[in-house]
Design goal:
Helices cover 0% and strands 54% of the residues. The protein contains no helices and 11 strands. It starts with a strand and ends with a strand. The radius of gyration is 13 Å and the shape is globular. The strands form 2 sheets. Strands 2, 4, 5, 6, 9, 10 and 11 form a 7-stranded mixed beta sheet that branches. Strands 1-3-8-7 form a 4-stranded antiparallel beta sheet, with no helix packed on it. By secondary structure, it is mainly β.
């Protein structure tokens, strides 16, 4: 099981920025992909951004151009830089890792991001 620890959430005003970081217990090169999901209040969990071991990146339409996912293989971390934040970005953000041929999914504990209007 991959242990994932998120950090960097908090309260920010609309238009502001936050940077989330996820530290993995395994080398990123051993993982199929990593990414970020979020769960807004009263809604289902949704994809935010993912990055594969080969470097392919995918963003949700709602964050394209505002959020940037990146990874540091030396530190085994994946970051999410969030700019131009909107109140609708308010959610619990979860780090996720996918491993192996069976595509096993591990989740972090989540970090709260609140954007005030």
């Amino acid at each position: 099981q991959v242990q994932l620890v998120e950090s960097g959430g908090g309260l920010v005003q609309a238009g502001g920025s936050l940077r989330l970081s996820c530290a993995a217990s395994q080398r990123l090169s051993s993982l199929n992909s990593m990414g970020w999901y979020r769960q807004p209040p009263g809604k289902q969990r949704e994809l935010v951004a993912t990055i594969t071991s080969g470097g392919t990146i995918r963003y949700a339409d709602s964050v394209e151009g505002r959020f940037t996912i990146s990874r540091d293989n030396a530190k085994n971390t994946v970051d999410l830089q969030m700019n131009s934040l909107k109140p609708e970005d308010t959610a619990v953000y979860y780090c996720v890792a996918v491993t192996g041929r069976v595509l096993k999914v591990d989740w972090g504990q989540g970090t709260q991001v609140t954007v005030s209007s």
